[in-house]
Amino acid sequence: MTQILQGQVVAMFAFDVGYEVSLERLSAMMATTPVQPLSRKKQTPTYLQYTKPPQILHLGIATGHFPAPGTIQATIFDFGAVSISYRWTLANVPLDQLPQLSHDLYMLNLEIHAKEQVEALMRKIEPAIVRPKLADLVEDYYLFILEKLETPLSAEELIANHRATLAQTLRFEQGKLSRSQQDEALAQNISYYEHDVTLIDWNASVIYDPDYEDTANVLELLNVELLEARYIDRQLDKRISEYAGLVRKRIEWPIPLRTPYRKAIEDLAELRLESSLLSERVENALKLVGDLFLARLHSAAAKRFYLQEWEITISRKLEIISDFYDLMTDRLHTVQSQTLEVIIVVLILVELILPLFGRN
Questions:
Q1: DSSP label at 42?
Q2: CB contact burial 20-45 (16+ within 10 A = b; e otherwise)
């Protein structure tokens, strides 16, 4: 029976807390630690680093969830997101108990506790947040990190000998999954050395690697990226619904000195700009390009998270917003032109009629 001599279990919950967080002001207010630069252990070029390293803040001890206490920390990103993570140590645990542990962890429903943590954190760091507001969205993700096994295994041996256990762990299932479900759960896997592998599923990953920090950080950032994609999508949905009715409403008669749609046009322009800027800032938070290990890891996880589909949907909705903007702008110009024409006609009539009254 394979024993996990050293490892960790991590539960992460991402929240949107505002438009932006000033990391400089945050560091001046509280004792934070920047996320460590990407390691050089896997030939990572020096330019592939965080644009603005997120700040880590330790929030205390996690008790009452598992027999052994864990730790709680917040990772704060400059684009207005916070990731609350719970960490527990694994030591001398049989590998075949991992599915039960993952199921128990998922059933804890830590989301409520994590939301309380982020609300308390926001009250403390509010001066550092631009336009603070906690969105009602949350994105969770779970990591099962195997740093050291009693019997060292290659990546191929681990998957071949324990595929059912690993698949159940990734899906939080207690019962043995079908072969097709196992294949699907284990489809996205990536290795650097012969004795490491990361198995990526849509809501959890198993990391078999003593040098796991970079992988865990990239997956945490991806979970935040998914949250922000959902946040942008919801904001666009809300505005599209609001302005669809306004677009259908027509102005039948031009009113002088009035600019219909002015507020709507300003709001649409601001929404389009802010959505594009947020998307750009999230994508540029970590520079990963080329055929490198972490870039391929990011790409594999993004595929599993369906991030490309979210981006396509957001692009399509931004096009709808742009169409609304163009339509309302055209209507505004039309109404203004009609108003001008009416004024000109009235002035001509006045000019023609006044001499007649003068003769009388």
A1: T
A2: bbebeebeeeeebeebeebeeeeebe
What b-and-e string marks burial along 93-108, b requiring 16 or more CB atoms within 10 Å of the CB?
bebeebbebbbebbee
What string of pLDDT tens digits covers the 360 residues of the chain? 789 999 999 999 999 999 889 999 998 988 888 887 766 556 555 555 677 888 999 999 988 777 788 999 999 998 899 999 999 999 999 999 999 999 999 998 899 999 999 999 999 999 999 999 999 999 999 999 999 999 999 999 999 999 999 999 999 999 999 999 999 999 999 999 999 999 999 999 999 999 999 899 989 989 998 998 888 888 888 877 777 666 555 554 444 445 555 666 666 667 666 666 666 666 666 666 554 788 888 888 888 988 888 888 887 877 777 777 677 677 666 666 767 777 788 788 877 787 776 665
Query: How many residues can be counted in the chain?
Result: 360
For the chain, list the strands marked E by DSSP: 3-16, 18-21, 33-34, 55-62, 70-77, 81-90, 93-94, 129-132, 139-149, 189-190, 197-200, 204-208
What separation, in Å, do the N-terminal and C-terminal C-alpha atoms of the chain show? 116
How is residue 280 written in tokens? 């750009």
* Residue whose structure tokens are 């809501």: 203
Q: How far apart are alpha carbons 83 and 339 in whole angstroms?
A: 53
Residue 35: name the closest of 87, 86, 73, 80 by CA. Answer: 73
Phi/psi of residue 269, nearest 5 degrees:
-65, -45
Q: Where are the domains of the chain?
A: 3-210, 221-359
Residues 6+ apart with CB under 8 A from 68: 88, 89
Tell whether pTM > 0.70: yes
- The distance from CA 156 to its chain's CA centroid, rounded to whole angstroms, is 32
Cα(101)–Cα(174) distance, integer angstroms:
9
**Helix, strand, coil in percent for the chain, rounding step 5:** 50, 20, 30
CA 53 to CA 55: how far, in whole Å? 6
- Sign (positive or negative) of CA dihedral 88, 94, 98, 99: negative
